[in-house]
Design goal:
The complex is a heterodimer of chains A (483) and B (137). Chain A has 483 residues and is of the alpha+beta class. Chain A contains 15 helices and 19 strands. In chain A, the strands form 4 sheets. In chain A, strands 7, 8, 9, 11, 15, 16, 18 and 19 form an 8-stranded mixed sheet that branches. Chain A has a 7-stranded mixed sheet with strand order 1-2-3-4-5-13-12, sandwiched between helices. Chain A has a two-stranded antiparallel sheet with strand order 6-10. The chains are: A alpha+beta (483), B alpha+beta (137).
Chain lengths: 483, 137
């Protein structure tokens, strides 16, 4: 397969779609990939979506795509777009339905051999303790008033309610609370969907994994992050559940009308947007921030039960087991950030749809402990191969607004995966590799099969090659808990 | 005539529904949606919910209708298999959805987050109405 001729190779891992490619494009498109990843992206509508995003009013520099790019709705998954606060727009389609879906990594001071004898017990305990599955209801019920506080305060609310530790806040983006949240901009429907879901894993590609660190690429940085070979770590992948889905649904309707009101012309209705400074734009940001805080709290409550499950299994306190938070990142989000554009420091609204923020060393938003090494980026792979910890780089800050990939990225549709792969066969295959699988539903398991994803190692290598981020550690899955 | 079929999307699921008139294509789209969530054979017709939605045009109305059913599934914990559109215009509809509360023996097959506007179409081709939507999974 050939590379489409409208793509110009401008670096070893960088392709450009010039804005002259389509009259509606306001900026270039830039895709970070190698030949194989570009060919995969060309098989569906992902590259067309990079072009479509370049139509957004007020977009700055370029419409970017990370190496795990694939066909989404509106934005491609792996898409990054920054818009000017002066004359730019904010688009719910650039964030997605699962607002602040993200990943966190917790470390332990345990090694594989220490955990092995208790491993099945630990997995059973987690399966019992973690609410999961489609429409799962949690153990935390919050009334309207409490929900307003949760949405405004984020993880601080959870810590006050007895979930997690105060020190955790340092290791979550925005210290666990995105400012600007206003629950008055959230509809009663979103409240209704969220009231029994804080601290629930959900279904689909969300999971909790017990992993082993199998490789460290930079001893010094790994040491700062508290990671070492043969160490047991825990990864959590979840989001804002029904609250985020409903807020996105509600505001797409508002934006659909705003597009007409402000006279925008867009190539895809799902890209609907409004000026950031318009009433519609401000309201969406205030509601989105509520969903972000909900998602951060959700992952935080899940961590609490993970700590509980370890305590019960090993009959030791979570702190003596060293169950600290390494970091928590969101990969579906819009944030107000300062970046250097044409030699000037400007404030922008950065949309990351299936992409992760990756601040380089010295960034003032990083916790003291990590300031010298850069922001940790947690990359979940598929359940059969590997996951990674990366850090942001100085060069990455100059490339795509300090962004890098968010995962492996799909290559196979869900129905194709279900046709080709049987859940129970896959489970046995993974088990023969020593991976314990706890899944509610075999068909759902097949949809998430390793073969349905790109090679995550190739994706992170391209990120490193393009200078977006740097590899620190590689983990392999030992136990997977899915909805 | 086929009521609906699915088409491949890398990350999500596409649905095409058909009908002789708009009422029918909307009913079939709802069937296509719930067929992803639960086996229709497992659902008994025990309860009925009235649904009313409004939107700016017929395509947005389809998104509203399907999202309303997803909202009822998640908040009322109900699965549906029978849908009757009683009144429909370009911008509003009134319908009845029949089904029951989710039971322990229902196997929930897929989590659908929402119905999107991406590649959205409701159009008449050769005397048949076609609807096309993509669900975020």
């Amino acid at each position: 397969m050939a590379i489409p001729d409208y793509l110009e190779k401008i670096g070893p891992f960088t392709y450009r779609i010039a804005k002259s490619h389509h009259s509606g494009m306001r900026v270039d498109g830039v895709v970070y990939a190698d030949e194989r990843l570009i060919e995969q992206a060309d098989r569906d509508k992902a590259l067309e979506q990079v072009v479509n995003v370049a139509f957004l009013p007020g977009i700055v520099k370029a419409s970017y795509a990370m190496p795990d790019i694939h066909w989404g709705y509106g934005f491609p998954i792996g898409g990054v777009a920054a818009t000017s606060l002066k004359d730019g727009v904010i688009s719910p389609g650039g964030v997605g339905f699962d607002i602040s879906c993200g990943v966190r990594l917790m470390r332990t001071n345990l090694t594989v051999s220490e955990v092995q004898p208790y491993f099945n017990l630990l997995m059973q305990e987690l399966a019992r303790n973690i609410p999961k599955g489609v429409g799962s209801r949690g153990k935390i019920k919050v009334g309207h008033r409490e929900m307003e506080k949760l949405m405004t305060e984020g993880v601080e609310w959870a810590v006050r309610a007895g979930y997690g530790w105060p020190e955790d806040l340092d290791f979550i983006e925005e210290r666990g609370c995105l400012k600007g949240a206003n629950p008055e901009k959230v509809t009663p429907r979103a409240f209704e969907r969220g009231k029994d879901q804080p601290g629930t894993l959900g279904a689909g590609n969300h999971f909790i994994e017990i992993q082993e660190v199998v490789e460290t690429y930079d001893e010094k940085i790994a040491n700062v992050l508290g990671l070492f070979r043969k160490q047991i770590v825990v990864m959590v992948h979840s989001g804002s559940r029904g609250v985020g889905h409903q807020i996105c649904t509600d505001y797409l309707k508002v934006m659909d009308q705003a597009v007409r009101k402000y006279g925008f012309s867009l190539p895809d209705r799902q890209l609907a947007c409004a000026p950031i400074n318009s009433p519609e734009g401000k309201d969406y940001f205030a509601a989105m921030a509520c969903a972000v805080n909900y998602a951060l709290t959700n992952r935080h409550c899940l961590s609490h039960w993970i700590r509980e499950s370890f305590e019960k299994t090993f009959k030791k306190s979570a702190s003596s087991l060293g169950l600290h938070l390494v970091y928590d990142v969101s990969h579906n989000i819009a944030k107000i950030e300062e970046h250097q554009v044409n030699g000037e420091r400007v404030t922008l609204c950065v949309h990351r749809k299936g992409a992760t923020r990756a601040f380089g060393p010295g960034h003032p938003d990083l916790p003291e402990k990590y300031r010298e090494v850069g922001q940790p980026v947690i990359i979940p792979g598929d359940m059969g191969t590997a996951s990674y910890v990366l850090v942001g780089t100085e060069r990455g800050e100059k490339e795509a607004f300090a962004s890098t990939c968010h995962g492996a990225g799909r290559v196979m549709s869900r129905s194709q995966a279900k046709r080709q792969i049987r859940g129970d066969v896959l489970k046995r295959e993974l088990e023969s590799k020593g991976i314990v699988i706890m899944a509610g539903h075999m068909a759902l398991l097949a949809e998430e099969a390793p073969d349905a994803y790109k090679d995550v190692s190739q994706v992170v290598d391209v990120c490193e090659g393009a200078g977006l981020s740097k590899k620190v550690a590689k983990m392999r899955p030992l136990g997977v808990l899915k909805g | 005539m086929k009521k609906f079929k699915y088409f491949n999307h890398t990350a999500d699921i596409g649905l095409e529904a058909y009908g002789g008139e708009t009422k029918e294509v909307f009913e079939n789209a709802a069937r296509g949606l719930f067929n992803l969530i639960v086996e229709p054979g497992e659902v008994e017709l025990k309860e009925e919910v009235e649904v009313r939605v409004e939107a700016g045009d017929i395509e947005a109305l389809l998104v509203e209708w399907l999202n309303e059913l997803l909202y009822l599934f998640e908040t009322k914990k109900m699965v549906f298999k029978d849908f009757q559109i009683e009144e429909i215009s370009e911008t509003a509809l009134k319908a009845k959805a029949k089904g029951e509360k989710v039971k322990s023996n229902h196997e929930i097959k897929t989590q659908i987050k929402a119905c999107t506007y991406h590649l959205l179409k409701v159009e008449k081709k050769n005397k048949t109405w076609h609807a096309k939507v993509i669900f975020d999974v």
